[in-house]
């Protein structure tokens, strides 16, 4: 059943599992085993436990080496954004793991194959299986290709609520008035619009942001303001 997945992993990432049973275990849900008493394998939960630890450690090591001038707070901030489980669901889909999960019939009918919470667990189980089968060096090489390379693409920003983070930072010493003011709305090609927004605290402008919606522009402004304040805080 996993032949096509093996071919895809080999051609795209130069990965070939020596122990295919580990790969099967990473993709097997408990309900499938309950409905197939003759099935000899295990469900993914133990591998998920291992994969979670491997992800945390691998990401921490990568960031530690990549950003030698960053302090603990900056490293933690990015690590948290990267190992949020919502990003794991997206990575599972990128590998097409969702297509190969062994599900119980009821779970299949309920749409579990596309459920983010399951795909997040499956990603961690897959990493746990890869670690046991290939070792840490292969895991790191794989993560550099599929996960760490996305840092420069801004992939992880979508999983960070910068407006909430900015609010928490600004209100550490007491209540403040935070405003998002739309400055402009400019036409783009294909009938799109570009919105420009500035974020203010107590009538002081902190940053400007732009995006194809007011919400996106506000998030960009909050991100710039938050990162600027974080940098200032770490410099002091």
Descriptive report:
This protein has 236 residues and is mostly helical. The protein has two domains: 3-159, Ribonuclease III domain (Ribonuclease iii, N-terminal Endonuclease Domain, Chain A), CATH 1.10.1520.10; 162-235, Double Stranded RNA Binding Domain. 56% of the residues lie in helices and 11% in strands. The protein contains eleven helices and three strands. The chain has helices at residues 3-13, 20-26, 30-35, 45-66, 72-82, 85-94, 105-109, 116-134, 136-146, 162-170, 214-235; strands at residues 178-187, 193-201, 204-211. A three-stranded antiparallel sheet has the order 1-2-3, with helices on one face. A hairpin with a 5-residue loop joins strand 1 (178-187) and strand 2. Helix 4 packs across helix 5 (72-82). It is elongated.
């Amino acid at each position: 059943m996993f032949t096509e997945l093996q071919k895809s992993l080999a051609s795209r990432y130069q990965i070939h599992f020596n122990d295919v049973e580990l790969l099967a275990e990473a993709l097997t849900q408990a309900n499938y085993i309950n409905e197939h008493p003759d099935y000899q394998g295990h469900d993914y939960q133990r591998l998920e436990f291992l994969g979670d630890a491997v992800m945390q450690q691998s990401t921490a090591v990568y960031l530690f080496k990549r950003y030698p001038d960053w302090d603990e707070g900056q490293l933690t901030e990015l690590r948290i954004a990267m190992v949020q489980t919502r990003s794991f669901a997206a990575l599972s889909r990128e590998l097409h793991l969702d297509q190969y999960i062994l599900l119980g019939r009821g779970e299949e009918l309920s749409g579990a194959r596309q459920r983010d919470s399951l795909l997040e667990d499956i990603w961690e189980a897959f990493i746990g299986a890869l670690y046991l089968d290939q070792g840490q060096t292969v895991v790191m090489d794989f993560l550099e290709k599929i996960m760490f390379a996305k840092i420069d693409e801004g992939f992880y920003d979508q999983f960070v609520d910068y407006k909430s983070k900015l609010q928490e930072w600004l209100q550490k010493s007491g209540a403040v008035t935070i405003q998002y003011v739309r400055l402009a709305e400019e036409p783009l090609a294909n009938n799109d619009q570009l919105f420009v927004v500035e974020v203010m605290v107590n009538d002081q402008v902190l940053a400007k942001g732009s995006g194809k919606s007011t919400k996106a522009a506000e998030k960009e402004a909050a991100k710039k303001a938050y990162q600027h304040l974080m940098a200032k805080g770490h410099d002091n």
